[in-house]
Amino acid sequence: MKYRKHLDQVERITAPHIEEGLIRLNSAERDLPIEETIWQKFLENLKETDVRYYPNVNNAVEKIAQHEGVKPYQITVGSGSDQVIRNIFECFTNPWNNVVTTDPCFPMYSVYGKIYNVKVKQVPYRYKKVDVTSILSAIDFETSLVIISNPNSPIGDSFSESDLNSIIHRALNMDAIVAIDEAYIQFATNTKSFADLAWSYPNLIVIKTFSKAVGSAGMRFGYGISNCKLAKLLQKVKSMYEITGPTVKWVETVVDNYYEIALYCQQVKHNRSILSATLSKEYEVVDSECNWIHTTKTDFPDHIITRQCTLPWSDKTWTRLCVPADLQTLMDIS
Length: 334
Description:
Layout: E1 23-24, H1 36-45, H2 49-52, H3 57-68, E2 75-78, H4 81-92, E3 98-103, H5 107-115, E4 119-124, H6 132-138, E5 143-149, H7 161-173, E6 177-181, E7 204-209, E8 222-226, H8 228-235, H9 245-256, H10 258-279, E9 285-286, E10 292-295, E11 304-305, E12 307-309, E13 318-322, H11 327-333
Parallel strand pairs: 1-11, 3-4, 3-5, 5-6, 6-7
Antiparallel strand pairs: 2-8, 7-8, 9-10, 10-13, 12-13
């Protein structure tokens, strides 16, 4: 059988199904139901033709551009931010190139590296922090892409503005693209978004998603912001229709009612501080700029699903514990 033999090294893991009624604090999802008035507005806006006809993706692009304060031609959209990430790998990598990222990183970075048969240089943490000096050293003339999360997944720390500027300029000198994945930026308190600066850098793409702060993982919507030249390149590898008709309507509804998303994020950030302070009295805690913390507490009520993991500087078992907005759940896990 003829196929791309390098795919033998790709391993994909499917998350197990979680029964209804359990509280999911394992996947950085929204724990509160969407506000009823917003849900009803979505249903009222949804038409039968949104299912029957091919979608007008331009409507979503224009809404997102308006929301981000950029031009529509700077936007590329996809079925989740991981689709945008895949398009970036397809556009900006070749087997003779390398990709620079952190270790650990969002798993799909290394997965797409294997799919596109490109070497991924993962730079380990140092002293429990992202090692910016080593990242800069890793970027060389064979680097075509630097992709990092800010805040950084799965640890939850962040890059400073000056560090990111150094990485962008180093990559530019090596003729490489920088993709900053801002999936968790709305939960951050000390992390600057580069979305409004993307037009001014010749080599920058900022990636965002509706799966985390917006709490719409099931709708599969993500987008990238860049200058016109990079956006046009990404358009060449996009799906014929990147998102569905119902997703377009959901994007319109969310952007028009974004105040509710902002309130939800504020509640998560408030609860994160409470949770971290409470657990620190008995357990080790690594705080974050995302909607989770890491803690050595591993025993939780049976109706609450969590995820155990390791940290690169520790041989202990940790829980990556997503922060609930719901106050009762917060009391149950504190």
